[in-house]
Amino acid sequence: MKTDDFEAYLDHLASALAHADRVSGLKDYCTGLMLPLQRKSVEPLAAQIDPLHVSARHQSLLHFVGQSAWSDEALLDRVLAWVQPQMERGEPEWFWVIDDTGTPKKGKHSVGVARQYCGQVGKQDNCQVAVSLSLATAVASVPIAWRLYLPQEWCDDAQRRRAAGVPIGVVLADAAYGNTCAFREALKAMELAYAVGVESSTSVWAPGTAPLPPRAYGGRGKPSTLLRRAAGHEPLSAKELALELPVPAWHKITWREGTNTMLSSRFARLRVRPAHRDYWRSDVRVEEWLLIEWPCGEKEPTKYWLSNLPSDIGMDKLVATAKMRWRIERDYEELKQELGLGHYEGRGWRGFHHHASLCIAAYGFLLGQRLRQKKVLQRAPLALPEGYRPRGAGADTTACA
Hints:
Layout: H1 3-14, H2 23-34, H3 42-49, H4 54-66, H5 72-87, E1 95-104, E2 114-118, E3 123-136, E4 141-148, H6 158-163, E5 170-173, H7 175-178, H8 181-189, E6 193-198, E7 203-205, E8 236-237, H9 238-243, E9 251-257, E10 262-274, E11 288-293, E12 303-307, H10 315-322, H11 327-337, H12 349-373
Parallel strand pairs: 1-5, 5-6
Antiparallel strand pairs: 1-3, 2-3, 3-4, 6-12, 7-8, 7-10, 9-10, 10-11, 11-12
Helix pairs in contact: 1-2, 1-5, 2-3, 2-4, 2-12, 3-4, 5-12
């Protein structure tokens, strides 16, 4: 890490703090986060930065991160302004990735702490869960919003995003979010494209079917305006629909290069209409993609997505987009393991978010350095001509390799 580059980066961030007396706190805290410490809560940072005045430095940093009224949003905007131009080089596609990460937490007084599912330990535990919105490309990603319980008011204002020059992208999320119909409907209302995970029990209308129109007016009372279902005319679960598909519907798709090999699996896709409580609606929902993954060797499909991406999108492109959510898992891992994201020991709302913002600020610098110094080589998977069949192939070319 070049000291001059880091100083320039911190000076760039400092303009977000509104007061000059906060700059030293920003520089000390971010510098401490970069150090190879086992734990990166306030006290160890103070001891490393100013070993001769640990108590005074501890109080100073504690006030900066826990009480000082600087804006997390303004700081993360500065991080994005530094990193985004370097992410843009040769990258025509952008993705919005919504996800959450849990940090185990003892006690019951820290803001947001509760017994809930914690991905870090893989079970219900006492923890804090934060939701992030990350901006991602095929080569890099960075969190740009971070909150307990997802209060993302700026995400609801399309005019504000356009005025600020925020890239228009595809919203990605796992089934914890995508399974909620209201969430998908809100994305549609904001005119955002999405590819979100759903559960196998999600109800959809099979291709070519839809709910029945309202009952014909009988001449008495108020005419019915609600869509209908009937015996023998009902939606199916995504899993039921997947299990009915014939073998030729499944295709082996490769979407990116993994650590040791190219990643591939079997996928099928269908144009369906989401059916969630449409008997309370008067208009039929538009068709969208149901994407299904059934890896070789599994007894049944393992993942499902709904997406409102264009009807003419290619299969390879649809799969690659849905699978882009994996990238932010690397962000979480580095933020926690290298920069002490989960080490904050305060209990308050402001301190929780300030610490996370400063960790993301430090991460933004490292990401910018990585993108600057390393010329990223994108390697497209080799593809055979459409319809190609090797000599001697049997009739079933969709079977597992």
